[in-house]
Structure formats: C-alpha cells, structure tokens
Amino acid sequence: MRYFPIFMDLTGRHALVLGDGEASDRKALALEAAGAIVIRTTTFQPAQLDECAVAIAAEAAESEIEALVEAANRRGIPFNVVDRPALCSFITPAIVDRSPLMVAISSGGAAPVLARLIRARIESLVPPAFGRLAAIADEFKAELRRRFPNTSLRRRILERALGGRVADLVVAGQENAAREEMTRQMAEGADSTGIVYLVGAGPGSADLLTLRAHRLLGEADVIVHDRLIGTEVLDMARRDAERIYVGKARANHCLPQEGINDLLIRLGREGRKVVRLKGGDPFVFGRGGEEAEALEAAGIAFEVVPGVTAALACAAQAGIPLTHRDATRSVTFVTGHTKDGRLDLDFVQLARGGTIAVYMGIVTLPLLRDGLFAAGLAADTPAALIERGGTSAQRVLTGTLDSLAAEAPGWSQGGPTLVLIGDVVGRRVGLRA
Ligand code: SAH
C-alpha cells in the first residue's frame, strides 16, 4: 500500500485553495461541500496557512506553488497540487458520492484512467438512493445497539435489512415504508442459529471463484480455510471477518477432521455465518461429505457451493480436453492416497481407456504406474503432471507414466499436482505452459 486512505473531517475548518481556473474551482466547491471555510488566493502568503487544516493548489504560478509546498511542508499541513503527485503530501481519490455513503478509489497515481473506469462501474452498482439508505441505517443505529448487544447478531439483522426489503423500499422512494419495515425486522430479530457454507474456492485464482462464493466471502462472519487457499482468494473476504486456519498438508494435519467438524458445529451454534472454504470443489476429495454429515447430525443449517475442481482447472489451462468425441468417452477422478501402503483402485477398469485424473497422486506415481501396466494399460499412453494448475504459476510436464515417475521427484516444486493419464494428453491444444 503506497498511500494510506483516510476521510478527513473539515467541518468549520479553513482550507486554502491557491490558483484560478476550472480545477481550483472544482476543489473549492468540493471543500465547501465538506463543510470547510475556503480561502481563495492566486498569490501565496505563508500567513494564509495560519488557520488552515489543508491546502490545495491548481492553475497557479510555479513560484507560488513552490512557496506553498515549502511552507505547508514545514508546518506539517497536508497539501496537494492537482495532477502533480510528486508535489503532494496527499492525493485525492476518484469518488462515488452517496453521502453519507462515500466510495473513494485510487490507483496511487499509477493509472488514474483505471480508477475512473472503476468509479463508473461502482456508480452503476450503487443506486443514488443508497445515500438515503445509509442515513436510515444511521437513524436506527443506537436502538439496534441497545436491543442487540451481540455484534454478530446485530450485523446479521442489518445485512438482511440493507441487502433486502428495506433497501428495495428506499430505492423505490418509499422511505417511510422502509422505516416501518426496519422496525418490523428489528422486532422479529434474526433467528439465532448460524449457517455453514461449504464453499469451493477453485484452484486458487480469485477470478475462478463462482459469483456465489464471492458474495458469501463478502458476507461471512468467519472463514475456516486450509492450506490450498491462497491469499488472492482470502483477500476477497470481508476485512473484519475472523479467519481460522485449519491447515492440512499430507501427513501434517493441523487439526484432525473431527476437530474441524466440531469447530464448524460450534461456530454454527454461536449463530455465526460461516464459510468453510475448500480448494477446488468441496465434494471432490475435499472431505466436504463428512463435514456435511456432521453438520446435518448436529442440526446446523448448511449449504454446499460448488467450485472448479483441480481436474477441470488443470485441463483447461493446460489445453488438454478431458474427453474427446473421437477417442475418449469417459473421465474418472481417482485418489492416489494409499491405504496401508496400497493403492486401493480398480486398475482393470481404469486401464480400459478413458481419461484418468489422479488427485494426491504425485508421491505414489510408481505404484499407480505398476498397477495400471499390470492391468494392461499401453506403456506409451501419454500422461501429464500439472502443478498449481489454473493459477499463474502453473507448470506442466508431459511424457508417459514411466518417464513421469522417473522425472517427478526432480521436477516437482512441492505445489499441489494433478496427474492426467490418457490419449487426450496427446491432443493438447494451444501454446500455454
Ligand atoms: N477438493 C479439491 C481436491 C483436494 S485433494 C479439488 O476439487 O480440486 C488435494 C489434491 O488436489 C492435491 O494433492 C492435487 O492433486 C489436487 N489439486 C488441488 N489443487 C490443485 C491445483 N491447483 N493444481 C493441481 N492439482 C491440484
């Protein structure tokens, strides 16, 4: 973060605007709108800064600007020279004004055009009436605090109101009806049992999250996640959401599965809105089934949100179709996880053709090769290793099961890796890495 964002209270404070022209007029108007007493000048005198909380210059003589920058700097008064970030102690963002709701966007000077594009999008996303909605929420704030001292409960009541009927009524211009609805919802309270969403986070890129996952991340009180979830995805979560890491690496379990189940149940009982975030899809080798069973048995409401599973993300980005009309009519997802040192797979069935996507298979690759070859899989069947598939760090190694088993230990960088086996690997398209 290059600049620290703040909103400044200028009510009744003096603000100096140096310069004469369109930009300085605009700044003066904005300062006045924020309640400042604006002093305008084209010739700078240090004494003009005496009472000032802030100074802005635009369209002024260079010598005057220099004098202002020097004096403001010495006195520690925040100053801005429009469109010249090198001469500023603060910069001003592009804003969407729905007072009291205010959205400020900045690219830190790197790409003002991008900031303006984003502003245009937010303008269309936040109806003008949201200013009124924020004001109405403010009217109810004290009473809500008094009646619902529990922060998370209070938040849920507000989320329901501001994201639902109350907001609809305000947007429709029916503010009194909105107040009545707010009063009614407050009397109803929020039902105090929580809900757990088992959410698939996809392979790690934020833009491969589903819209539903994205929305829930923005709403959750608490996020329970494991090792496969990267910062890019976690950054989509509400800033003040609690995050609980329950990590899981091969043979390095942070919290055993029963512990995770118990944690989800406890959070649900506390009335929280929980997102249990899982890499890929929760129901594909994600133990989502066990978590869902435990929640059901405990009577906690839950929902499953699918995600892009590793096989789909890896295949797409590596340019390997999982099925092909001419050759391959099935795809099987299997685990390379061993039970008592053995791969418990139906090798005969797998060797019959069709694509095989092996999760957690890189370490046990020699066992898989032996099993498949013994069951009759052709030794020249193409195969691929795909590490960190579906992310910008994806790596692909192609060959045969024999060559991959030999090369894998030297090639792997330790990231999650999928093994794809089948004729489709030979039909790889595109030039992607
Ligand atoms: N629920 C997850 C799978 C969890 S099992 C999903 O649907 O994708 C963990 C295994 O998934 C890893 O050992 C690896 O084989 C595979 N995997 C997960 N993310 C991956 C990725 N980005 N690239 C390649 N393989 C991945």
Describe what this molecule looks like in 3D.
This protein has 433 residues and is α/β, with parallel strands linked by helices. The protein folds into four domains: 14-92, NAD(P)-binding Rossmann-like Domain (Rossmann fold), CATH 3.40.50.720; 129-188; 195-308, Cobalt-precorrin-4 Transmethylase, domain 1 (3-Layer(aba) Sandwich); 311-427, Methyltransferase, Cobalt-precorrin-4 Transmethylase, Domain 2. It is 37% helix and 20% strand. The chain has helices spanning 22-33, 62-75, 112-125, 130-147, 151-162, 165-171, 175-188, 211-219, 231-234, 257-269, 288-298, 310-318, 347-350, 365-374, 401-411; strands at residues 14-18, 37-41, 52-57, 79-81, 94-98, 101-105, 195-200, 222-225, 242-245, 248-249, 252-253, 273-278, 301-305, 331-335, 355-359, 382-387, 395-400, 417-421. The strands form five sheets. Strands 9-8-12-7-13 form a five-stranded parallel beta sheet, sandwiched between helices. The chain has a five-stranded mixed beta sheet with strand order 14-15-18-16-17, sandwiched between helices. Strands 2-1-3-4 form a four-stranded parallel beta sheet, sandwiched between helices. A hairpin with a 2-residue loop joins β10 (248-249) and β11 (252-253). α4 runs antiparallel to α5, α6 (165-171) runs antiparallel to α7 and α10 (257-269) crosses α11. The radius of gyration is 29 Å and the shape is globular. It starts with 13 loop residues before the first strand and ends in a 12-residue tail after the last strand. Bound molecules: S-adenosyl-L-homocysteine. S-adenosyl-L-homocysteine is lined by residues 203-204, 228, 278-281, 284-286, 309-310, 314, 359-360, 386, 388-391, 416-418.
